[in-house]
Design goal:
Layout lengths: L14 H7 L2 H4 L3 H17 L5 H19 L12 H13 L12 H37 L4 E6 L2 E7 H26 L1 E2 L15 H8 L3 E2 L3 H6 L2 H27 L7 E2 L18 H25 L13 H23 L2 E2 L1 H9 L5 H10 L4 H18 L8 H5 L9 H4 L2 H6 L9 H14 L3
Parallel strand pairs: 3-4
Antiparallel strand pairs: 1-2, 5-6
Helix pairs in contact: 3-4, 3-6, 3-8, 4-5, 6-7, 6-12, 6-19, 7-10, 7-19, 10-11, 10-12, 11-12, 14-15
The structure holds arginine.
The site of arginine (ARG) has 10 residues, from helix 6.
């Protein structure tokens, strides 16, 4: 393939160099954006009088034909094209001859590649925010379906206090809501049109950049050409947003892996989302969830990879920037794949209601209530805590649950303990007392579900 820079060189590029430097194998997925950007740029050149109407039309038709050929997989992807930008331009020149060489007037691959990436990311963020909304809808529907059911709340992975199962599910809804906000914030900074920055100093031809932004659907244009060609913050910000979301997905996966184990036995994973063992007949393994947890590492790795690429770069464009694409595409695909599988998995999730409710109040999860009861009767909290602790120790020694103690036994610890303490040991009573905004009382949780339903169009 003849190189566009051939004029300056006496020797041809080594094959090993072509293979080493090529980005075509992975940037080919930007072909649609590259053609869209090229068509807009052709229109801008026509408007500036650099291309005649007739020349422009020929180029536009040529680009459409190339799009058809790429769509149908008719193009041979030889790495000696180097990248998708040179592939499209090369194919255009084959089609319309020397005229094709006019399209790159005033444009550089440096502003072209960042335009393509931004266009691609705008579309990708849109799709992924929609998937994230689907995930939240699945959670909120379950929170509504299982409203009123108790669940054990944990701290340090030890039973702590009873909560509503819905409250627990809605905690994940909050995390995914923040993730969606982060993506939409990041989208604002992706939504900036860089074309017209040229190699680094700005396009020397009378190109109307606002017109380009309008054609391509951007809200604003970049304000400094040097920054525009060297900036990949938008990609890094996106990787950071999806890394945080993957951390949430991984934590949810971990909770579900634990909760579905025989030892916890609180939820039931849908069989279609589990795999068996080739040797142990009894197994129903949570491989999907384990992979979700595992893949979070990869996405975080992509963030670290791009951050490391960027941190030492002098202004403006450097070829290192080509290394942005594989982590970006890889992480984005991984993230999307995880969202796709988590939505139906959640929809198919089952629960073991009796066990949830029994675990919610057992294991001394009501000990705080006992202390609060004594506070209610006038004791300072620290003293109440000490007495409740003694009662727990007594129960442990006797192998009894709090609710199995007789009133006489209880009164041995404090005269303040009366028959009404049984009411306080009822987990529903404990929930009702937590009517603080953000608390687990049924009214508050119901409100949270209603708010989320409204936000999500349910
Ligand atoms: N393939 C290159 C990339 O992905 C396109 C820009 C190349 N620019 C250059 N001056 N070599 O970054």
């Amino acid at each position: 393939m003849e190189k566009p820079w051939g004029g300056r060189f006496r020797e041809r590029t080594e094959r090993v160099v072509e293979e080493f430097t090529a980005s075509l194998p992975f940037d080919i997925r930007l072909w649609k954006e590259d053609i869209e950007g090229s068509k807009a740029y052709c229109r801008a050149l026509m408007r500036a009088g650099i291309l005649s109407e007739e020349e422009g039309q020929k180029i536009l038709e040529g680009l459409d034909e190339i799009a058809g050929e790429l769509e149908r997989g008719e193009v041979e992807l030889d790495p000696s094209w180097e990248d998708v930008h040179m592939l499209v331009e090369g194919l255009l020149r084959r089609k319309v001859g020397e005229l094709g060489g006019k399209l790159h007037t005033g444009r550089s691959r440096n502003d072209q590649v960042v335009l393509d990436l931004r266009l691609w990311l705008l579309r990708t963020i849109g799709e992924q925010r929609e998937l994230l909304a689907e995930l939240r809808r699945a959670l909120v529907r379950k929170a509504e379906q299982w409203f009123g059911i108790l669940a054990p709340g944990y701290t340090h992975l030890r039973r702590a206090q009873p909560v509503l199962l819905s409250h627990y599910l809605m905690a994940y809804n909050e995390m995914f809501k923040r993730d969606s906000e982060r993506l939409s914030e990041c989208r604002k900074r992706v939504d900036i049109m860089p074309l017209g920055s040229s190699a680094l100093s700005g396009n020397p031809y009378p190109i109307d950049r606002e017109f380009l932004a309008e054609l391509l659907g951007f809200s604003r244009i970049s304000e400094n050409s040097i920054d525009a060609v060297s900036d990949r913050d938008f990609a890094l910000e996106y990787l950071s947003a999806i890394s945080i979301c993957m951390i949430h997905l991984s934590r949810m996966a971990e909770d579900l892996i634990l909760w579905s184990s025989d030892e916890f036995g609180l939820v039931e994973l849908p069989e279609g989302f589990c795999t068996g063992s080739s040797i142990m007949p009894q197994k129903k393994n949570p491989d999907v969830l384990e992979l979700v947890r595992g893949k979070a590492g990869r996405v975080i790795g992509a963030f670290v990879s791009l951050a490391t690429t960027l941190k030492g770069l002098p202004l403006a464009y450097n070829r290192d920037l080509q290394e942005d694409k594989e982590p970006l595409f890889g992480a984005s695909d991984t993230f999307q794949g995880v969202l796709r599988v988590m939505v139906p998995l959640l929809e198919g999730l089952g629960i073991r209601k009796e066990r949830l409710e029994q675990m919610a109040s057992g294991g001394f999860a009501m000990a705080t209530e006992l202390a609060d009861y004594l506070v209610h009767k006038g004791l300072p909290f620290r003293e109440a805590h000490r007495i409740a602790g003694q009662i727990v120790r007594h129960c442990e020694e006797k192998g009894k649950d709090l609710r199995e103690l007789s009133l006489e036994e209880l009164r041995g610890f404090s005269e303040l303990l009366d028959g009404d303490v049984l009411l306080w040991l009822d987990p529903h009573h404990a929930l009702r007392r937590r009517g603080v905004p953000g608390g687990t009382s049924p009214e508050r949780v119901k409100e949270a579900i209603e708010r989320a339903k409204e936000e999500l169009g349910l």
